[in-house]
Amino acid sequence: MTDAEFPPVYEPPRASASLWFEQALLADGWARDVRLTLADGLIARVDTGVARQADEPAHGPVVPGLPNLHSHAFQRAMAGLAETRGPAGDGDDSFWTWRALMYRFLDRLGPDEVQAVAALAYLEMLETGFTRVGEFHYLHHDKDGSAYADPAEMAARIAAAAEETGIGLTLLPVFYAHAGFGGAAPGEGQRRFIHDVDGYGRLIEASRGAVAGLADAVVGVAPHSLRAVTAEELAAIMPLAGTGPIHIHIAEQTAEVDACLAATGQRPVRWLLNNAEVDRRWCLVHATHVNATETERLARSGAVAGLCPITEANLGDGVFPAAEFLAAGGTLGIGSDCNVLIDAAEELRNLEYAQRLMRRARNVLARGPGTATGGDLYRAALSGGTQALGAASGGLKRGRPADFVTLDRAHPALVARDGDALLDSWVFAGRHGAIDGVWRRGRQVVSGGRHHRRDEIVARYRTVLSRVMA
Ligand code: ZN
After folding, report:
1. Is the model's pTM score more than 0.70?
2. Strand partners, 435
3. Which letter, b or e, does each residue of 128-158 get, where b requires 16 or more Cβ atoms within 10 Å of its Cβ?
C-alpha cells in the first residue's frame, strides 16, 4: 500500500483556534487556567488565569511535546527479535551480534516496507509524547546495493511517514563509507548504506527536495561514526550541513573506543573534539564511554549529548556519566534509537534509574535541592532535543510551534498532582496511558491516547510485516 491510497483525513489547520487547559507548563513555569490561541501552526497568544467559556472543552494539564533526537525507524520492525541468546555462550551476546541480525533483517525491506514501519514508529512516538523525530537515516540503496533512480527514494518514504502521522521531521541522511577505522572497505551487509562524498552531496540535495512539502522539516548531516568516515571525508561533508544540525554516533561501545585508540592514539570523543569544530550544531549520539576530561570538554563545547537510555540498556552499551556532564553545564536530549520500545517518559525514567543503580542514590539528575527529577529531566530533554534537531525553540510561549501534549487528569497516577509532581508521576509512575491528547503544529493528532490514523497504519503494518517475516 502506498501513501496515495490513504485519503487525507486531516483538516487543514484552522486560521485560528483557542484551547483552554486547567494548567500548563509554560516556557516560564507552570500556570493555571490557561488559554492558548493558535494560528498557522504556532501559539499566537497565551492567557493565564482566565475562566473557561461555557462552550470550551476543559483540557487537562498541558506540557510541550518532547523531541526524539535519534531514531532508526525501520528497526521498530525487529523489536523483540534479538532477545534470544546466541550460540556463543554466556556474556558473548553484544551490540555486534545484534547488528548482525539487524543487517540480515534490513535485506528484506524495500521502500513500501520502510514507509509502513516508519509510520508505525512515528505514530507510537506521538502517542507517547514525542512531537518531533530526528531520523538518522542510513538505509539508502536497493537490496542489491544499487542506487534507486531517485537517490532520496527512501528519504521520501520517511518524509511520507512523517506526513501521514503528523510528526515533525528532522531528516539526518547518513554518510557511511567504511567498515572500520583507517578507511576499511565496507562489508557486504553495509552495501545499502554506502556513498562517496559526491554521491552524498547529491543525496543531501535530493533529501531537501523530499521534505519540501512538510511545514517545518529540517535536513542535517550525519557522519555515521568515526568507524565509517575518514578524517578527510568528515571535513568534506561538514559544509553540506549549512545551518542544519550535525549528528554522529560516538563512543557507544568499548570495542569502538579500543579501535579508535589503536588507529589514532586518541579516544573517540577526544579525537572528534580535537579534529572538528564541535559546537551547538552538533549532537554526539550516545557518547557513553567518556572520561572526565572528555565529559568536561563536551559540556563546554555546547554540543548535545544524545542519550538513548532504553536502547543503551537493551544493547548493553554502558552508562553515560550524566550527573557529571550536567554539573559541568552540559546539554542533553533523549532518543529512541533502535525503537525496541517507544515511550518518552520511559526514556527519562531509564536515564535516571541507570544513574541511581550506578551510584546507589536517588534523585541523581535533579538540578538541585527541592527540584523535581522528572520535571528537571523533562525540561532538559525539551531544550537539548530542540537544539539538536535544529528546530524552532520549543516550549509553550507566543510565537513557538503549537506542539503539545495533554495528560489524562483521570489517570490514577495523576490524581491530586499539580505542577512538576505531574511530570514526576508521569515519568516514574504513569506509563503511556497517562497521555490524553497530542497536538502538532496546531492539529490534534492523538485523542484519548490514540492516534487518529492508528487503525489504518497498524493494519498496513500487519500486512507488510507478515510479508517480511514470511
Ligand atoms: Zn543509532
Report:
1. yes
2. 407
3. bbbbbbbbbbbbbbeeeeebeeebbbbbbbb
Which of 337, 343, 376, 420 is flagged as catalytic? 337
Q: Which three cell numbers stand for residue 251?
A: 563512543
Helix (H) or strand (E) run with residue 247 in it: strand 246-250
Strand ranges, E, within 95-232: 130-137, 168-175, 218-219, 222-223
Cα 378 to ligand 1 centroid, rounded to whole Å: 21
Give the distance (Å) from ligand 1 centre to CA of residue 79: 14
Q: Where are the domains of the chain?
A: 3-64+397-456, 66-388
Spatial distance between the Cα atoms of 132 and 440, rounded to a whole number of angstroms = 9
140, 286, 289, 411: which one is catalytic? 286
Q: How far apart are CA 210 and CA 407, in angstroms?
A: 34
Distance 211 CA to ligand 1 centre (A): 21
pLDDT number for residue 3: 41
Give the pLDDT confidence of 436-447 residue by residue, as tens digits: 999 999 999 999
286 labelled catalytic:
yes
Q: Which amino acid is at 420?
A: D
Question: Does pLDDT of 345 surpass 90?
Answer: yes
Render pLDDT for 276-285 as a digit per residue (tens, 0 to 9).
999 999 999 9
Give the distance (Å) from ligand 1 centre to CA of residue 312.
10
Backbone phi and psi for residue 469, each to the nearest 5 degrees, phi listed first? -85, -10
Q: What is the pLDDT of residue 73?
A: 97
56 Cα: distance to centroid of ligand 1 (angstroms): 43
Is 93 a residue of the active site? no
| Mean pLDDT calculated for residue range 357-373 | 97
Beta strands 42-47 and 62-64: pairing type?
unpaired
Q: CATH says 3-64+397-456 is which class?
A: mainly beta
Query: What's the CATH fold of domain 66-388?
Result: TIM Barrel (3.20.20)
Q: How far is the CA of 266 from the centre of ligand 1 (A)?
A: 22
pLDDT band of 86, cuts 50, 70, 90: confident
Model confidence at 87: pLDDT above 80: no
Contact 222, 249 (CB under 8 A): no
Q: What residue type is assigned to position 332 of the chain?
A: L
Q: What is the pLDDT of residues 23-42, one digit of tens each?
A: 999 999 999 999 999 999 99
For residue 463, is pLDDT > 90?
Answer: yes
Hey, which bits of 103-206 come out as E strands? 130-137, 168-175
